[in-house]
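Running low. Any example?
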Amino acid sequence: MILYREISWWYWAVTALLLMIGLAGPFEAFYLALALSAVQIVHFRIREGRFGAFPVQVRLAYTALVALALWTPLNWLFWVPAVGTTAQVLVGYCALARMLSLLPWNRREALSWRLAWRTFVARPVRGNILQGQPAIRQSRLGVRPSRARWLKRGGYNADNQGVP
């Protein structure tokens, strides 16, 4: 999903361009991509209000990957964010965000092959992958129907502070 009217899309578009330039030759472009990623962390930390917010987590992991790739033996790693960021810009698919959504503090159900499959093959969604996670099956929850509906509506989030 191309969201060219949002600042986050422009951050990713410029970062993808810098990574492609770096892969084509001038290594300095990688440093600029890293600096822009750091700016994104600060911007989204201020916007979201905490480092634990999912958009901030994605940018922290991304920046760490780009920083790791600056080490000479790992320069080949620049291909990973270059391809991934290009996919994010062109079609809205972010494999890194999908991987992070499977971490224990970001998911609402037990980790399983089925959840991983649904996470990686789900269509890109507006916002972030946590908002587009497949609905939780009531039969697998083992909870009363009203609680299952509450969990499907979002469960614990900043709006309802975890009150059903």
Summary: Residues 7-101 form one domain. Confidence is low (pLDDT under 50) at residues 135-147, 155-164. The longest helix spans residues 28-48.
